[in-house]
Structures
1.
Amino acid sequence: MKRKTAKEIIAESFREIAANKSADKITIKDIVNNCDYSSATFYGNFKDKYDLMAWDYAVHMKEIISRRYEWRKTFFDCAKYFWDNREYLKNLFQHTSGHESFVRYIAVTNIEILGKEIMRNTGKDELDKDIKILIHIYCYGIVETVCEWILGWIKASPDDMGRIFEASLPDALRKYLC
């Protein structure tokens, strides 16, 4: 039986509170009181609540990517994750003073995950310059589009978004993933 780590428990606590409270109004004290931890435990795992939000996102994306099935399914699973967690994500996008930093962190996390996956598939320990730039363009575009979708500015189903994530993947990246 796998026991939850302090990080996982703290993240769950934050998510519970964020279901009913704006992210910018949640304090470290709220988070630790909700899970019966100390502030020292929080700061031993995260530097601030934005670090916590970013870590939580990265864990979920890495879990989806690590399933190692065809990329088409990965795109659909990512879209489903975003859709299933849209109220939580909307809270983060709308109610964090570090909105741009959080969005940037999401893009950087996606860049890192995609880059590692391409290196794993090619057997290389470094990406060439053009591939790195394509990964950046693709990930930043996807993240901004997901933000607009979560905020309701783009009307589409999770299946539509999964299909669009796949269709928008540049051919130069597709050959390493699909």
2.
Amino acid sequence: MIDRSGSSSVDRVLGVDPGLAKAGWGVVVRTGRDLTHEGYGVIRTSTDQSHADRLLTVYRGLQAVIEEYRPTILAVEEVFQGKSPRSALLAGEGRAACILSGAIAGLPVVEYAATSIKQAVTGSGRASKIQVQSMVALLLSLAAPPQPHDAADALAVALTHLQRGRGAIDVRPG
């Protein structure tokens, strides 16, 4: 059973893989040594929307996740330099909407580099998306790797925070 009373023995982390087209999110809870996920998904925007509406969609989507799951902290992946300066800028703007969501909700916001996340979850800073998905499934005792990869990446961000903030994750199943 998950304690939603705000007890200090329970860590509820909202991990975010930010973006403007897709922002992955995942909530991971640690109670003692037990890790469980409460939910995960993706907030999608459309190029048919205005730029402002896309940012608002990401912001409001994360606000809804925060209201539903009541995390105690928001952990977000740092921006990765994309293939072009424009794509990096758009990703950064989506990331800003995510950070703003957490800050306005009063959550502490922490940031992790992509290589740190891969290292924490898989043991290799150069792990593939498939390796990250597989390890997230193993660590959270999921029947299958979370889809899409944006949601798996968000769960990996949350797991990274739990590892870095509270000691090593026990990778022994069940």
3.
Amino acid sequence: MERVYQRTFALLKPGVLQRRLVGTVLSRIEAKGLKIIGMKLLWLTREQCKVQYGEHEGKYFYPPLLEYMTSGPVIALVLAGYDAVKTLRQLAGPTDPAQAPPGTIRGDYGTLTRYNIIHASDSEESAEREISLYFQEEELHDWEDGNTYWYGGAR
């Protein structure tokens, strides 16, 4: 199966900043071969969270999710690489930190599902929708880093 170069979206949640894990998480993402092509530090409004997490409205965890996501700054990321959506989802691990294996971001740094530390788009379509919520195309910079060969690209 041929690998596909694509973009994906990640949101480092307030707990990452509050626990001083930004560098650690970014390092894990980069070491896995994903390239940062967009990054912003933001403090989300309730309205932005409602758009981001609208599919969860009405679920028991929705009000606490909005409270958590507006409790401090977040880092919005656009990442690019081969099979970027799948790669980031595997690196993040299952949503419940108790179910996330060691070696995943949630398995190594997550504490409670309610205070999840990373959001990772679940499809190319979701990624593009989420990217458009936080970034204009001119804010994204897909640059050549010379490591393409090591992460599945042709020379």
